[in-house]
Amino acid sequence: MVVVRGTGTLVAHSRARGSLGRGSACPSAPFLLEYSAVKQTEILVVGGGPAGLTAGIYAARSGHRTLVLEKSFAGGQMALTSEVENYPGFSEPVSGMLLAQTMEQQAIRFGCEVLNAEATGIKSGPTGFEVATTAGPVAAAAVIVCTGVKPKLLGVPGEKELSGRGVSYCAVCDGPLFKGREVAVIGGGDSALDEALYLSNIASRVHLIHRRDEFRACPFVQQRLRERENVTYHLSCVVESINGTERVEGLTVKNLKDAPTFVLPVGGAFIYVGWLPNTGWCSSLVALDDSGNVKADDRLRTTAPGVFAAGDVRNTPLRQVATAVGDGALAAMSAHDFLIGETLAT
Ligand code: NAP
Questions:
Q1: 107: β partners
Q2: How much distance in Å is there from the Cα of 33 to the middle of ligand 1?
Q3: Structure pTM?
């Protein structure tokens, strides 16, 4: 089912030249003639995480007809975060889901439309772009890539087979299924420790398995986790296999410091070993760096003029809600400048 939220009228199948709608700041209306897309907009934001929703707010507020594509729900990874406690403006931790819904409502208030669909490809022409989506093609004069990241797999036997049957990449989604049971969290970054903290409120015991003796997560979270009595650390340890037939029954864990391999009898394995950028749909048009992130310059311009990138999907040194939001704002203003033929003041 295709769901469009917002107040505008984006569905305007027409090959005839017409107004771009509210604002009409784009001088390149002829781009509408070129495409047979069932939907058309000035700025298409692909991805509805914090970067995408902020781009939606700024683009729509600048008078551009703006459409945000959301694959499933507002907020992306942020919405799956139990508590966001370092995004400024909230003295107490705020749920990622609530933050996402509020950002979406804010974008809609400025006239931005939100479409539940996934981008599957993009092609360019002399005056704009056509993005293939699961809801049909969308034509746009400028595109902002905000498709974020997907979880990296651990790559051990049993992981794929037991995915959704005890193997999870989302503690907020699946944690409540493990009330009063023992679970494992694998990883040593902010995601792993944040979610281990969350799970320690639900599970009887959380086994934290990390391949080194030191965590890369911020010290504040490490300290909070140390205060939990139901967390057991397995440092310098790696998971060799995830075991079970119908469901996860345990993990085989190897200690890298010559200690014996052991079996942890857990019912859930929450894997947080990093992320991979979601770029499959646009990699034919924009250049990626060696890690697969979209290359973007200091104005968030990609190698394809008219395509911008914001948030976790790009070559950024810091992946935070706060930096994603900043990216979204800058990318939208760069897209605005592209459309009106100006450049931001330096
Ligand atoms: P990350 O920082 O890349 O950490 C990944 C962790 O997984 C590392 O500890 C890494 O070990 C481990 N790892 C990677 N591959 C592995 C493998 N094959 N087997 C076992 N362990 C493996 O990822 P993240 O924690 O998801 O964080 C991503 C970004 O988002 C970071 O910039 C982070 O700061 C940010 N973030 C921030 C917050 C927050 O501010 N509250 C929350 C979540 C994420 P090594 O340490 O040995 O490399």
A1: none
A2: 46
A3: 0.85
